[in-house]
Amino acid sequence: MTVHELKELLNARNLTETLPEDAEVTCGYSCDLLSWVMSHGESGMAWATVQTHMNVVAVAVLADMACVVLPEDVEMEKEVLQKAENEGIVILSSPLTSYEICGKMYERQIPAHT
Amino acid sequence: MNGLIHSEYPRETADYTHAGEASADIKRQLRQLGVSANVMRRVAVASYEVELNLVIHSEGGVLTLDVFPDRVVLVSKDRGPGIPDVEMAMREGYSTANEEARALGFGAGMGLPNMKRNADGFEITSQVGVGTEIRMMFMLQ
């Protein structure tokens, strides 16, 4: 599934509009503890988190993630979005809860690990 | 042996805004050298953890990257305060991070164990009142 297809599935908005949505989502994850994500993050991951500060982008970049998904219409500050666009990390914001986001991804057979 | 790359990244206490930039730069440099994805990812995780440790726990310090033909070496040296019980600090889940760090999603007590797990060689020395030095090595082959 591509980031674009995930966006449609989650009824989400792409907050990083200048970025392409063609990256392949190969696995999914949900966690708000960044140091935990750092040790479990994988490339191609779609990561659901309510954290919105600069280090979310740093973790996503370092793990080569496909995108970050903010649940419950959480917004991200402009300068963090700018950083995400510079680094090429797509940030989606969905009205669904993290629980629902994971449920939908799992239903579409996106695994926990590649 | 001649190094291919030598870079230094000074980090200051509680500077969360710039935390992660050293790791991102290190990753970029390794990518330009054509280092394998597996090694690059392990170096990136370890460098991010050690960079965050400088920001969260130290009174400031420097992260140094050296790349040799056969290995990558990361060294973190800080100006204190030093770790009273290194063995305890190496345990997963043990953390002394403050509220500010925890609110940002850090302080899971995964930092040092995660560095050790990702590196091919890991050494830590610390003296209270002096500082902490962490040396990590990653084989390129």
Portion in strands of chain A? 15-25%
Give the class-level CATH name of chain A.
Alpha Beta
Instruction: Tell me the CATH topology of chain B.
Output: Heat Shock Protein 90
Q: Tell me the number of helical segments of chain B per DSSP (H or I, 4 or more residues long).
A: 5
User: Oligomerization state of this entry?
Assistant: heterodimer
Spatial strand order of the main sheet of chain B: 1-2-3-5-4
Distance between the termini of chain B: 17 Å
Radius of gyration of chain A: 12 Å
CATH class of chain B: Alpha Beta
**For the largest beta sheet of chain A, what order do the strands appear in spatially?**
1-5-4-3-2
Total separate domains of chain B: 1
Q: Give me the number of helical elements of chain A.
A: 5
Biggest chain-to-chain interface with counts: A-B, 22 and 25 residues
Q: Helical residue percent of chain A? A: 25-40%
Global outline of chain B:
globular
How would you describe what is shown here?
The complex is a heterodimer of chains A (about 110) and B (about 140). Chain A is globular. Chain A is an alpha/beta fold. The mean pLDDT of chain A is about 95. Chain A has a single domain (about 5-105), classed as Udp-n-acetylmuramoylalanyl-d-glutamate--2,6- Diaminopimelate Ligase, Chain: A, domain 1 (3-Layer(aba) Sandwich). Helix content of chain A is about 40%, strand content about 15%. Chain A has helices at about 5-10, 35-40, 55-60, 80-85, 100-105, and strands at about 15, 25-30, 45-50, 65-70, 90-95. A 5-stranded mixed β-sheet of chain A has the order 1-5-4-3-2, with helices on both faces. In chain A, strand 4, helix 4 and strand 5 form a beta-alpha-beta unit. Chain B has about 140 residues and is α+β, with helices and mostly antiparallel strands. Chain B has one domain: Histidine kinase-like ATPase, C-terminal domain (Heat Shock Protein 90). In chain B, helix 2 packs antiparallel against helix 5 (about 110-120). Chain B has 5 helices and 5 strands.
